[in-house]
Design brief:
binds S-adenosylmethionine; Rossmann fold; globular; alpha/beta; seven-stranded mixed sheet; 205 residues
Length: 205
């Protein structure tokens, strides 16, 4: 891992991900978190303060070691017990059907082998479990899509592996998830290539 990825990017991300538009969405996505919860792509722990009060423990994963270090002060300040794993979503060490709730906020864009990860999410989610997500991705407008595809190679470098052009509706459906709710919308502020959101609740189809 290079200097930019290890030292600079996590700090930039911690700032960028505190965008008020994102902070507003976090509690809405997490409102339905219950039972045994697994949050993938824990990042710098920004979701922690938005879980419902009823949540006492979560299991988290993120392969980036520096993210975990930045997250630690939020973990220490939280009443929630966090069991963190420094691993990627592509290979999870949990038994089949271990979790009632999966949480994924702005992370599917960054997982290199997103297909392998979605297979794992499907495997570790209980039969009647919920997959709570919000992701930025492929826009509805073809003109914006064109720019997303064009800019993606450069964006991936600056964003440490983040993709602009993933279609999360198709990705989840292709990996045997069905939607209880799916809302797509644009954030009001920001550049159009990065502000088209997919937010919802999916279950095993
Ligand atoms: C844009 S950040 C989002 C962080 C956090 N979920 C949030 O909402 O603030 C994307 C996160 O995905 C993580 N990530 C990258 N590759 C991953 C992988 N293979 N599996 C799981 N997470 C990964 C990154 O380390 C980073 O923390």
């Amino acid at each position: 891992m290079g200097f930019y990825s290890k030292r600079i990017f996590p700090r930039v991300l911690d700032f960028v991900m505190r965008d008020p538009q994102m902070s507003k969405e976090r509690p809405l996505v997490l409102a339905n978190a219950e039972g045994d919860i697994f949050e993938i792509g824990f990042g710098t722990g920004l979701n922690l303060r938005h879980y419902p009060e009823s949540v006492k423990k979560i299991t988290t994963a993120d392969p980036h070691p520096t993210m975990g270090k930045i997250a630690q002060r939020r973990v220490d300040a939280s009443p929630i017990d966090v069991e963190h794993h420094v691993i990627g979503g592509e290979k999870l060490p949990f038994e089949d059907e271990s979790f009632d709730t999966l949480v994924c906020t702005w992370t599917l864009c960054s997982i290199p082998d997103v297909e392998a990860a979605l297979k794992q999410f499907h495997r570790v989610l209980r039969k009647d479990g919920k997959f709570l997500f919000i992701e930025h991705g492929l826009a509805h407008d073809p003109k914006v899509q064109k720019w997303q595809h064009r800019v993606n190679p450069l964006w991936k470098k600056i964003g440490d592996g983040c993709n602009l052009n993933r279609n999360h509706r198709e990705l989840l459906q292709d990996h045997h998830f069905a939607f209880d709710e799916l809302d797509t919308f644009n954030f009001e502020k920001g550049i159009s290539i990065a502000t088209y959101m997919y937010k919802g609740i999916a279950r095993k189809a």
